Amino acid sequence: MLNHGLTPFNIQSGWIPEPSRESFREFFEMILKTEPQKLSPSVQALKELIEGNDVLQYLANNAFKENGNIIHAHQSTKEAPIPRIPNLDVLLYGFNTLLNLAPQFINNDLVGLPFSAFVVGIDATLGGSTLFRLPMFNEKMKAILDEWSIFLQSSATDWLFAEEGKQWLSDTAKKQYDYPLWEKDSETLPYWKSWDSFFTRNFKDPKSSRPIAGPDTNQVVICPNDGSLFCWQPQVQKKDVFWLKGMPYSLDDIFSSTDPEQDKIIKEYKLTEMFENGYVFQTYLNPYNFHRWWVPVNGTVLFDPLVIPGCFFSKLVLPDYGGATTASTPYLAEANARGLIVFDTPDFGKVCCIPLGMSEVSTVTFDSAMTKGATVQKGQEMGMFHYGGSSFVVIYQNLPDKQLVFMNDKGEYYPPQPPPPGSSAGASNYGTNIGSQIGQWFCKCE
Predict the structure, then answer these.
(1) pLDDT digits (tens, 9 = 90+) for 186-203
(2) Is 279 exposed, middle or buried (0-12, 13-18, 19+ CB in 10 A)?
(3) Considering the entire predicted model, what is its pTM?
(4) Cβ atoms within 10 A of the Cβ of 34, count?
(5) Contact yes or no for 257/326 (Cβ under 8 A)
(6) CA-CA to 159 of 20 to 30 Å: which in 50, 150, 308, 390?
């Protein structure tokens, strides 16, 4: 039994059902009982990679074996209702089926991360967690998720918005994402032409829905995204290690890339040294949040933004049978697919923004105006998650004569590590609307 107070189910941010819900089991049955079809080229490529490598085969077979052990150990409880994945074919045919499945509600429970939900029985195993960290695996997995994203942009997904009272137009769902605020593709059903169009929807009136705090001054620090506070940390170290409790951030690992050209840029600008002893403020998003991001300062873009490749299903906090946990959030900042952009301000140093992927939601797109040397303003669109991204990291430079205090516009201080989310939407008591104040810079007095 998982009984350590940080069960993954109460910190997964509302992306998949609670473990005891019948909808979780129904989802697994729907995938596992679908008649196998010819594998998509992207799934076939993953099959050939694993079957052609003895080490990958060993890791996969270990994951399938441990999957059976987990199910056997929990068969008398509802603690871990996970699918039996006995071999590679079952896993791959499951991926193949998911390529044509959009995030949807089953019995009014959201299965917003179908790939993550499907692999909950193997990503918590030693073999599975190791396999999911390997660059060669993630390269093939990215091709699968890229193919899935094309499906999510297609009209084959508009049925989710085609019937009042159903799916994303149910009363419960509408309440979660505050339905009246949003622009629609059409005033007649279906309101949005695709899942991706809905996911990247904009406000009807951004200025009234999300006003910008202190638009003319960088002294007032604003949040670049909708979300909830996961944690903040001062004096971030150049090098650090991750532990289960109180996970610190390691700038050397965050500012790194397996792409040589990207790594060259990171080292050229000495980003690790630039932000050493600075401040980190990290949030996470739930499925109903606004998934665009806005520039948090008045200044200039230091260099063309980067989209760094990384992992999709790698986690640090194990065991985890719940899929999309936020417990590993600091670790994901160095391991997962992510964006990277730095803004230079004339008065309050440099600010780094990292839109961060979690699980299969790992597609980041920067706005075309975000180019080296461009002048930007608070509230200007920075980019968006195209069905991707569940976290956002902001790193502020340490300034010798100033101190950053994280507090809202009412003068209420943000706790460094607030409790996990407690609502069905996966939001904590420390919500952070895009454009709202999350801090202020103060002069250090002698």
Answers:
(1) 999 999 999 999 999 999
(2) buried
(3) 0.87
(4) 15
(5) no
(6) 390
